[in-house]
């Protein structure tokens, strides 16, 4: 059996309809955590229209297989001199192959090339493939009250049904 080779490229508008399904597939791993299992049934956090907006700004990257089929994505937005990662998802069949790391590297390279100061995100504090993963890549947890845009994101996440206190804000200084 051959090894599947993945590459990362900027997303195109024709990729947008495929990205919500990737997020749904990626969320299936949350079934392992009873308090977060509902995420496996939830609607994706980003709609096709949200993805189209990120693609239009060239702030969405996809990991594709040898047939150029997207199997992972990272969508971001600008916040002053920061690149904020809105969502990273890798579909179940491709998890564990380094795609999330490759997508993050691409986003960080973009931020550096465009003179940005930092890359920011919010994530689950104690889910192994969330905050601990980002820490290994150089992100550090910050107090959201010192970062107004991150505090606002965390309030929105809790208002949408995520368990209070389960999320954290993280920053990588470039």
TrEMBL record:
Keywords: Acyltransferase, Transferase. Gene3D superfamilies: 3.40.630.30. PROSITE patterns: GNAT. Residues 6-159 form the N-acetyltransferase domain. GO terms for molecular function: acyltransferase activity, transferring groups other than amino-acyl groups. It comes from the Bacteria. It holds the Pfam family Acetyltransf_1. The keyword DNA damage does not apply. InterPro entries: Acyl_CoA_acyltransferase (IPR016181), GNAT_dom (IPR000182). The keyword Acyltransferase applies. This is GCN5-related N-acetyltransferase. The lineage of its organism: Bacteria, Pseudomonadati, Pseudomonadota, Alphaproteobacteria, Acetobacterales.
């Amino acid at each position: 059996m051959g090894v599947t080779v993945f590459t990362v490229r900027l997303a195109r508008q024709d990729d947008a309809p495929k990205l919500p399904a990737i997020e749904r597939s990626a969320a299936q791993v949350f079934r392992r955590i009873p308090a977060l299992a509902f995420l496996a049934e939830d609607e994706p956090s980003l709609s096709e229209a949200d993805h189209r907006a990120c693609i239009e700004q060239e702030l969405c990257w996809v990991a594709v297989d040898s047939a150029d089929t997207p199997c992972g994505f990272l969508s971001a937005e600008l916040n002053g001199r920061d690149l904020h990662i809105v969502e990273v998802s890798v579909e179940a069949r491709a998890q564990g192959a380094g795609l999330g790391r490759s997508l993050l590297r691409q986003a960080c390279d973009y931020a550096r090339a465009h003179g940005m100061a930092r890359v920011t995100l919010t994530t689950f504090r104690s889910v192994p493939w969330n905050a601990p993963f980002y820490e290994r890549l150089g992100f550090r947890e910050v107090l959201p009250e010192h970062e107004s845009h991150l505090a606002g994101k965390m309030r929105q996440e809790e208002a949408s049904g995520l368990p209070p206190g389960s999320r954290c804000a993280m920053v990588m200084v470039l």
